Amino acid sequence: MRIVIVGSGAVGSYLAERLSNEGQDVVVIENDDARAAAVQDQLDALVLVGNGASPATLTRAGAKRADLLIAVSNSDGVNVLACHAAHVLGTRRTVARIEDPDLIDGVTDLGVDVVIDPGEMAAHEVLDLVSQRGVSDLVEFVDGQLTLVGGIVRRDSVLLDQRLSDLRQHHDRFDWAIAAIVRHGETMPVRGDTVIDELDHVLLVSRTEDLPRARCLLRRERDPIQRVVVLGATRMAELAVDLLLADHLEVVLVDHDETRCRRLADRHPKALVLHGNPTDPAVLSDLSLGEGDAVAALSGWDDVNLTASLVGKALGASTVLARFHRLSYVGLMVGSDIDASVSSRLTAANAILQFVRRGRIHSVATFKDTDSEALDIEVAPGSRADGVRVQDLDLPTTAVIGGIARDGRATVPTGSTPIAAGDRLIVLAPAHAIHDIEAMCTA
After folding, report:
1. How far apart are CA 347 and CA 108, in angstroms?
2. Could you tell me the pTM of the whole model?
3. Which one-letter DSSP state was computed for residue 266?
4. Ramachandran region of residue 184, left (φ > 0), alpha (ψ -120 to 50) or beta?
5. Whole-number Å distance between alpha carbons of 442 and 410
6. What's the CA angle centered on 10, arms 267 and 336, to 5 degrees?
7. pLDDT tens profile 141-192
8. How many Å apart are CA 38 and CA 50, to the nearest integer?
9. How far apart are CA 200 and CA 382, in angstroms?
10. Fewest beta carbons within 10 Å, which of 24, 125, 161, 248?
11. What element of type H or E holds 279?
12. Which of 136, 221, 126, 140 is nearest to 182 (CA)?
């Protein structure tokens, strides 16, 4: 598949690296010479310097024969114009990153097939992580019937030091399956004799109705969060504040800029807005943080979010999460007091990759510390997966079937579960095996 990416910022460079590593024919357009040179050194892909909205530049990039154009520059206008120009040139499908709600209406008439808003999607992720405290990942599949939930195994987890085969015997009151174990940045094969270590990142699948039980496997059950302290006044933070207030949570918003605090107080009258440095312990200590409090560090600076979230935890917040631009930080957080991280880069990637993995794939999820992906893929009649049992599939050692949906009902399979045409499989597999998984389910 030929894919043209306009913009090599956090989202564009991440997608370009991931897709080029899979062997996709990727071309990146970047208008900054220095940035383009740096990206070219990192990627096995063609990087062109130019205006991504220019028909001449898009023609050089091969937009006339491209299957997909992904416009994710920092300018909404450039992204819309790039999609329009590519559509006129003959690109089959276009995706644009647009954060201005006033610009979204009518863009389909300009050749934009799909609009993504990473900030809004990340704000919803903040709400989910706060409401399901103690987890680091939360992804729904099959119209919300199955949920993949992840967390770092700590000393209070019933999974700690347990063999997987023993766990299934001792916790068989509901259907669940461990889909992946990430240890020191490496995804391990999931076998019956695998023993779970402290600080392993475990991803498991259960029916959504059993999510509270699945969550208790990762962390002991706690009372719900009552108050959320949001640090920083980015657009994502403001969107998260609105969602948290709508969910009837008490919200405190802290920012270092006094003028911005006045504006925030007018925009969010139901929130308590405090003027202060989010990393200053004196600011947060006045809030008397405790078991019912969560801290969400959502500023635009990774170092501020890292420091502020650790300060919040040290002062008594039971749950802390931080926004990161650099995914390299995420691996360093394992073993720290940060419970979860949020990345607009990954939320955008999850939304976009389903258009790359089109065909029989209904949805895709990526993760912060592994290159594995979770796919919701439909089995075609006559494919290699049609008519065989789960245990007889020729899967890579680190690939796992975590769920099956048939006739509108989703279940967590065992090795003896048969697979039939029309089934939707929830598969967690390394990126290099995605093509094989697609081939296995396609006639």
Report:
1. 22
2. 0.82
3. H
4. left
5. 21
6. 80
7. 998 999 999 988 888 888 999 998 898 788 878 889 999 998 887 888 888 8
8. 15
9. 39
10. 248
11. none
12. 136
